Amino acid sequence: MKNILVVKLSAIGDVIHALPVAHAIKETYPDAHLTWVVEPPAYDLLTMNPYIDEIIVFEKKKFKSLGGFLANYGPLKRKIQQRRYDAVLDLQGLFKSAAIARLGQAPVKLGMCNMREFSDKISKPVIGPNAEGHIVERYLDVARAIGCRVDKVVFPLEVPEREADLTRRIFSQAGANMENPYVVFAIGANWPNKRWPVENFAALSDWLYDQRLIPVIVGGGVVDEQRAAEICAKTEIPPINLVGSTNFKQLTYILQNAQLVIGGDTGPVHLSAGVGTKTIMLMGPTDANRNGPYGQLANAIEVDRSCKYCWKRACPKKLDCLANIQVNQVEEKIKELLTI
């Protein structure tokens, strides 16, 4: 195969899960030109992947009006059709990704096992051996269907040295040294019921200081800023607060060098597992079998509720889903992983 188009647009956590597909393609077809279509939030993530030759950005918001669609459809179509592809892989499985996959001129169009919104009319679903397994393996089943061997699952990410140096400076300006052992709290998530309560993070932060580990908060956006402020206010010694202070490349470097990362089913926590950092994922509405920290499923702590795995963005029962995961449960898992 000489030209392959991958369509995986969002969300950041899902794009992270799909990264091993790029490695699998280039391991099998090293001379192939790999083009990837993505939405803006995950663009920086893909720029760190050395196996992707070309990134096409799909700006969905520009297509929401008739005028925007008419103005932007032509340029997008021309970009995609600059090449003829041997295969198009739709790893999103939604109407928007199917519309993009349709533009790709290729004899083979494949998608993942659980395609929705009629996307299976454009790309053939691959019902592979991992159709009921982890989402990373479901994506890799699509790569296997075009002949890719998967000898090793690799999340290929290379942080530029300039960004690494900037990250060390950011740490220093926040009053910390990256050479000292630290634990990252990924405090946010798009789904409210994927967020562990701020008082639990605060209590864990104080306990980590007692273990000579520095707690570091990461995240972005107004909600995360508010949560970080509440955590800091509830602690005896405030953690290092880097919310809103880093870009994605700098965040990746922070996660790569952490002793441990803790958080819900969200992008930074999946990224942590992908780069090989010890990762504890706190889970409620989603299940570890599909969405847990890849390669570290034993480090997922699932909530003890009969209604877990509901896959609801907000709890229909108005419960604070992850509040049932106690601080001491996380402390015991940390002791196990860090032997403290």
Automatic annotation (TrEMBL):
Lineage: superkingdom: Bacteria
One GO CC term on file: cytosol
Matches recorded under InterPro entries: Glyco_trans_9, LPS_LOS_Heptosyltrfase
Short name of any one Pfam family annotated for the protein: Glyco_transf_9
GO aspect biological process, one term: lipopolysaccharide core region biosynthetic process
GO molecular function: ADP-heptose-lipopolysaccharide heptosyltransferase activity
Keyword Transferase belongs to the record: yes
Keywords linked to the UniProt accession: Glycosyltransferase, Transferase
PANTHER family tied to this protein: LIPOPOLYSACCHARIDE 1,2-N-ACETYLGLUCOSAMINETRANSFERASE-RELATED (PTHR30160:SF1), TETRAACYLDISACCHARIDE 4'-KINASE-RELATED (PTHR30160)
Protein's name according to its UniProt entry: Glycosyltransferase family 9 protein
Provenance organism: Selenomonas ruminis
